[in-house]
Design brief:
It is a single chain. This protein has one domain (2-10, 31-297). The chain has 10 helices and 10 strands. The protein has helices at residues 21-24, 53-64, 71-80, 92-97, 123-139, 142-152, 175-191, 215-221, 237-241, 285-297; strands at 2-11, 30-33, 36-46, 86-90, 109-115, 159-166, 200-211, 230-232, 246-251, 270-281. Strands 1, 2, 3, 4, 5, 6, 7, 8, 9 and 10 form a 10-stranded mixed beta sheet that branches. Helix 2 (53-64) packs across helix 3 (71-80) and helix 7 (175-191) runs antiparallel to helix 10 (285-297). The chain is globular, with a radius of gyration of 21 Å. Pfam families: BCCIP.
Length: 298
């Protein structure tokens, strides 16, 4: 499944430049800028395989941080259910053309869904359920805690954990074909009477909240909507947030670096890393895909 293109940079080997025919026939997708070469790279979605283990685990680690989740077990679970979900990889053609700069096993993202309901043998599933209950008890209202607790204990309303992780420099346009593919894979799994007939899905979303430095800034910001003070790690999740039936959030300041790219000084507004838990009716997944596609195409 071809997905999208991304601009990558690598150092140009100026000493090897010449006017040979081979150099003139370099891909039109390369452009020299100063001492760097900007390359347009094609990405594609593939079924997770064993060699993706380390890459998937790295992505899960940036989501769960220090949470008590066996990431080895969770990664193996994702690979075993590879009939649902995709990893983002550099296309094979680009891999061959750029062998010096790329690792063929590098995973740039993972989009999948995991069944949290019913009888589960994997330790990681029990840990995920326990984590969600602990978090909503600590940070959600009584109504939220009651809702999530009832949901996770009700076999008549199966719940899926929606994982949507990628590196920060991968554009949100990549999510549209991934979401559409996931939708089709879930449909096929349901037709085979597999346990993917979800009533709700839960997304753990990464975001950053701005802490304003002075009263003047606070006065200005107070006139704006709350979203003006939030940076979403995955921008498309702002759209998903609007479809959530239940949500709550918490800081992970003591567990993570900022995760933001750029230079900062003491006069800049401070960004607090957060997690927001979104509980979404699965019946809204089709409309979510449509709204995300519209948002990232604007």
């Amino acid at each position: 499944m071809a997905i999208t293109r991304l601009m990558r940079k690598r150092n140009a080997d100026l000493g090897d430049k010449n006017d040979s025919k081979g150099d003139k026939e370099e891909s039109d997708d390369e452009e020299n800028i100063g001492d760097e070469t900007v390359i347009q790279v094609d990405f594609e979605g593939r079924n997770p395989i064993d060699s993706d283990f380390d890459g998937i685990k790295q992505l899960l680690n940036q989501l769960f941080l220090k949470a008590h989740i066996n990431l080895n077990d969770l990664t193996e679970h994702i690979i075993k259910q590879n009939y649902v979900g995709s990893v983002i990889k550099q296309s094979e053609a680009d891999d061959e053309a750029d062998e010096e700069d790329s690792d063929p096993n590098e995973v740039f993202g993972i989009t999948t869904i995991i069944n949290l309901s019913g009888e589960q043998k994997s330790d990681c599933i029990h840990q995920l359920r326990a984590l969600l209950l602990k978090l909503c008890n600590s940070y959600g209202s009584e109504e939220v805690h009651s809702f999530v607790q009832d949901l996770l204990s009700n076999p008549m309303k199966p719940v899926g954990l929606f994982i949507n992780e990628r590196f920060v420099n991968i554009p949100p346009q990549i999510t549209v074909p991934l979401f559409k593919s996931l939708k089709s894979e879930i449909k096929r799994a349901k037709e085979k009477r597999m346990a993917y007939d979800f009533s709700y899905i839960i997304l753990i979303s990464k975001l950053y909240k701005m802490e304003l430095n002075n009263d003047k800034n606070k006065s200005k910001k107070s006139k704006k909507s709350d979203t003006s003070e939030i940076i979403w790690s995955n921008p498309e999740e702002e759209v998903i947030d609007q479809e959530a039936e239940v949500k709550f959030e918490f800081s992970v300041r003591n567990e993570a670096d900022s995760g933001l790219v750029g230079e900062w000084n003491e006069n800049d507004d401070e960004m607090t890393p957060m997690r927001r838990i979104l509980v979404i009716p699965f019946s809204k997944f089709d409309s979510i895909i449509e709204k995300v596609e519209e948002a990232v195409s604007a």
